[in-house]
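Q: Convert this sequence to C-alpha cells.
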Amino acid sequence: MRRDLKNRLFRAAAAANKTSWADLQSAQHRASLRARVKIYDGISEALRGKGVEPELSVRREEAAAELANIPDTPELRAADEAILSRARSEKADSGALERIMKRLDRIRMADKLPRY
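A:
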C-alpha cells in the first residue's frame, strides 16, 4: 500500500512540473518563424513570375534573418517540438493533478478507518 502511495505521489509531482511559460513562448516563436519561411517559399514558388515576389521576399528574409540569429540547430528544433508536444498534452491533461489528489485523500481516509 505504501509503495502504491509513493508511486502516485511521484506521478502527481511529475504532472505538476509543467513547461515554463518562457520556454513555451520561445518554442512557439521559433516554430512560427520556421513555418513562415516555409510558407513564403511555397507562395513564392507558386507565384513565380507574377510580380508579387518582392514583398514576399522581404517578409521571408526578415523571418529567415531572425531565425538565423538564433542558431537554429536540429537539436533546438527537436527540443522545441518536445516542448510544444508536452504543452499540448498538458493542456489535454488539465485537472489530472486534482483528480490524483482527491484519490490520495480517499486512500488516506481509508487507512485511518478502523478495520473490523
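The chain has a mean pLDDT of 77.
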